[in-house]
Known about the structure:
By secondary structure, this protein is mostly beta strands. The protein is 3% helix and 31% strand.
Amino acid sequence: MRTKARLSTRLGVEWLEERAVPAAYYVATTGSDSAAGTAASPWKTLQHAADVVRAGDTVTVRAGSYTGFYLSTDGTAASRITFTGEAGAKITSRNARTADGINLEGADYVTIQGFSVTGAGRAGIRSVLNRDVIVRNNNCDSNAVWGIFSGFSENLTIENNVTSRSAQQHGIYVSNSGDNPVIRGNVSWGNRGCGIHMNGDVSQGGDGIISNALVENNILYSNGAGGGSAINADGVQNSVFRNNLIYNTLAAGITLFRQDGAAGSSRNLVENNTVLVASAGRWALNIMNGSTTNTVRNNILYSAHSFRGAISISADSLSGFVSDYNLTENVFSVDGGNTAISLTQWRTATGRDAHSFTTADPNSLFVSPSTGDYHLKPTSAAVDKGTTTGAPRRTPKARRGRAVTAWTSDTTNSRPARPHLPRLLPHHRPLPGNRSRSGRAGERWPRSRCTTRTARCGSPRPRSGARTPAKFGSRSVT
């Protein structure tokens, strides 16, 4: 973590004070910034609202297209600043100070919700040098670099957003050793890089480690055409990656590694995820660069690539590694992907995955992969085969009311229409010997540059589902 240093440009301490009665402001395209900012007399620009708000204030933004805004004012734990976009509220051009749609620069205790942000020259929504920010229920589509970006942002919550078609890099990028992030319930698709990228990046100051992250209930698909895992964790420790659905990923599925972070991604829990890698992709799960003491259980891990497979781990990451109760394909590696071995050979070499088993055709597990329905069939081989240890009780929701992962539920959800994706074709191949293979697990991306002056860098909520027996994949309930 890294603490922020900031000097007020206002006299005295007025900028920290809360009004006795928080104000409720409104913005509309038909308004005027010389008006009162009320529901009857709204302001016209988001930047005017951002210049006026103090702790406890709310800003409601009516339907229409707006220029973005830059906010550096704090809320407090008891009195947050909240900007809410009503249906149809769109930010279609950058704010006046940075290339982002919405930029929170050192602004603590702020909630941003309900906006569509498109066409920004950098991030749709950017949050840096702050704490306890919530970014919720936004749609960040077709932005130049990232959908949502953070740097040195402590206790950040990114939930129930859609981040899509970032032209250069990632859907969601959490960077610069910001601790305790929650990345939950998001849909991230069609981004050139990662669906979710996390990078401690010691070169930018702080301890170079992202600690105590929770990454759960996300749906990630068709990411990685330019390289980068669906979930990339560089220098991420003591964190949980669970209940995520990853499919048609064009690079790797989940990667725990060290490249820019101060140390490997260690002491993490990877459980109840469904990971289906496209034939042009890589390994379903990579653990590399001294990323030790990780636990992997109750996952479905499959790669349709011709020779890459379920789990690849480097020799320096085996210490403390626990893996079991996974449903995989019959391809593993104990040397970082240089050679491949079968599950039987993997057990002999590592002593792991005693209760795991393989499938040649992951499509047989699910109701209708070709239409995005990853609910398990009643006859699926994954039913009742997982461990109930640490079984979660919530599930991400499928579009059109269908459960989406290996853990069944009664949840419903409405998501944006997705492009048709081809059925994942199984690869019927013989048990591998020690075949040579190549390719990087982790992807190097431009580092996020975040200083005390500026960081130059780089839906509805889930509801409780039906209780079901323990199974594999992205949902386990008991």
